[in-house]
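Methods: holo model generation. Sequences were used as deposited, without trimming of termini or removal of tags, and paired with ligand SMILES retrieved from the corresponding compound records. Each pair was processed once, and we did not select among multiple samples. The sequence and pyridoxal-5'-phosphate SMILES for this entry were:
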Amino acid sequence: LKVYYELERILSDITGFYKTTLQPSAGSQGEMVGLLLMQSYHRSKKINNKKYIIIPETAHGTNPASVIMSGYEVKQVKSNDRGRVDIDHLFEIVDEEVAGMMLTQPNTLGLFEDEIEKICEIIHNVDGLMYMDGANLNALVGIVKPANMGFDIMHINVHKTFSTPHGGGGPGAGPVAVNEKLSDFLPGPMIECEKGRY
Ligand SMILES: *Cc1c(COP(=O)(O)O)cnc(C)c1O
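and the model returned the structure below.
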């Protein structure tokens, strides 16, 4: 329990998030956990009109699959000629029915989404949540924390970031980190430490 607890703390520290669960057994499982967290959050706020998750056309195939598995529908945002999210198109497709957005940072073309703060603002303005697909986290560790860019939730492909580059075929795991407002919705049981007892 101590090892799990300390690993959760370390991953929270690296990503800038409040709490981490080690439960998901793959990045793709983490995606589904993240989307169900969005659902729980919106329900707790009595917001019942959320239907869509926005994902870029460059997204990994597991992203749209997880969206469908979680009961949402996909809205696809185009890339601009710099290979990043097309902000004008994002403005066109965003509305109150958007539950959130999933984004890989740096994206699957290996490019840092340099307008990330603007993107987060657009999604947060319709009460949406920002999910970071952490498959490329190895490019960010020690340089920038995902929570500081505006993300609310992320998964960490520990087998990609802290092992063979991009996984090498597994085995894997997909811890999910969240900010404080989502921490009560994480799947239990969670490990707590009180006076040195776990
Ligand atoms: C690998 C990958 C995933 C899925 O992660 P698994 O741990 O293989 O389930 C999701 N998104 C991106 C961008 C990936 O590269």
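Helices lie at 2-15, 27-44, 62-69, 87-93, 116-124, 146-149, 158-161.
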